[in-house]
Amino acid sequence: MTPPATGTAPPATSPALVPVLVYLAMLVAIISSLGAPLVPAIAAANDVSVTSAQWSLTITLVVGAVATPVIGRLGDGRHRRTVVLVVLGIVLAGSVLAALPLGLGWLVAGRGLQGLGLGVTPLAIATARTTLAGDRSRSTVAALSVTVAAGVGLGYPITGAIAEVGGVHAAFWFGAAASAVAIVAAALVYPRSPDVPPRRLDVAGALLLGTGLAAGLLALGEAERWGWTSAAVLGLTALSVVTLVAWARWQLRARAPLVDLRLARGRTAATAHGAALLVGLANYLLLSSVPRLAQEPESTGYGFGSSIVVAGLALLPFSAASFLASRLTPRLQRLVGARWVMPVGAVVLLAGEVLFGYVREDLWQLFVATAVAGLGVGTVFAALPALIVAAVPPEEMGSAMGLNQVMRYIGFAIGSAASATVLEAATAPGAGSPGTEGYQAIGLIGVGACVLLALLTVSLRTRSASPR
Asked: 352 near 376, Cβ under 8 Å?
């Protein structure tokens, strides 16, 4: 463990610190998962299309992609405790805003504020590393990583059950109550940070990244309704491309970039970050589509007419399998060799996408599809850190992991927006549900992402293993 910058031993901490850190990670995971099972209910409650309601999920991921490096930079110095408390306060405000019956626009705005909470987990991990010693530090960091997957799995059925009993807004009131508990707990036990100077915040980089992602995802998410060749879609696409190119150039030249893209140079590093984007895309194509498919009426000929609770439970095998895969990946590495772990994970995820698209006559088959996909996602995510370790010097590890996390969230957001657009395209005029070919198309897009992921990683592993 790296000692604090002052050169002293880690300060004495409250015995409650570890449970509080785990609770914060759990809270963030649950709040981030509030959108997926609730999208059809949000559409019905606000009398809007499901495509429009999908923004209640996508906006959280977009904000999270930008907020994670920003919050990480702000909390990197002596003000970490203050940053955590302020972010939790904003998450609480967003939860209340989403819970109030003010219409879809305010709900989406509240979900955007909740997205800032995605930056709390990296700060919790950093706190465990700097304030805890030895095995306690390592075990806590491992527990926090596992909590993220477990929290998502718990969040789906819990919030689904609350929404089933009390309505959509009750689920967000639950998020508000949980956030209030988190603020009190953090205020009581969160330690002060080491007295180190904070790093400069790249405001221009944050604005460029946020603008580019928002414009691109808005164009993707609304292209089917507005028209792929409409002035609005073409203009937003052009704005996104220009802004993201400008952001990349700025990040390569800035003295203190928000996201150090120079850490993506080299075949190994570029593969690690490309893999995070692709698996994130394939991941959220499923996570945002499975609950909607489970709730489609049986009259469609393919839907199951499930409740929100069952739709949430359909994603529980995904989280459980992801957790299991993270524990089994070291054994898989010993069995097949390090160079084949990520390609194997990509193939397993591909199998899950195929099952989702084409083998779902009964509800239990949907559960099997999510479990298989979870095994694939968990295997790839568990193998990514080792790839980054091999690509960058130890002193740049934190920044490289931050870049990988951003790429993962960008993949999540693209997958969420793309699933809504595909299903909108498969919905006949005046129909309330898409045709089954929409869900098949989502499976095919996921298969394509997995094929690219497998080719990318097997090529790198083979070359890396060959003599130089």
From this structure: yes
